[in-house]
Known about the structure:
This protein is mainly α.
Amino acid sequence: MGYKIYTRTGDLGQTALFGGRRVSKGYLRIDAYGTVDELNSYVGLVRDHLSEEAIRTVLKTIQDRLFTIGANLAADPEKDLPKPDLFVSDIELLESEMDRMDETLPELRNFILPGGIPPSLLPCGPMCAAGPNGWSWF
Length: 138
């Protein structure tokens, strides 16, 4: 049998990191992997709205990497636990995809207002920026 969606360990404002240590739900790592998890959900939402298989495949790869980032953030930094790796090739994939998209977009001369896409997809951009902006501690 797989994992259950509940732990039966009670709440009391705490949760467990991979490795078992209980920490406050206000702990920075919990906030960070929650942000990554939220972004991953939005990337899945975007993927579900697209029909072009090549882009869907790239977004699935990005979701996998976001899951890896979340796993690393959820691991207790005080324990030597095996964690999935991120690679330079993961960054290169993102950069090459952004470069490819940039080729088809008009030159950006100023900030733009969100819009022109289904409203449920609008949070994706800010979610992408929210994580790294608050992670100088990591």
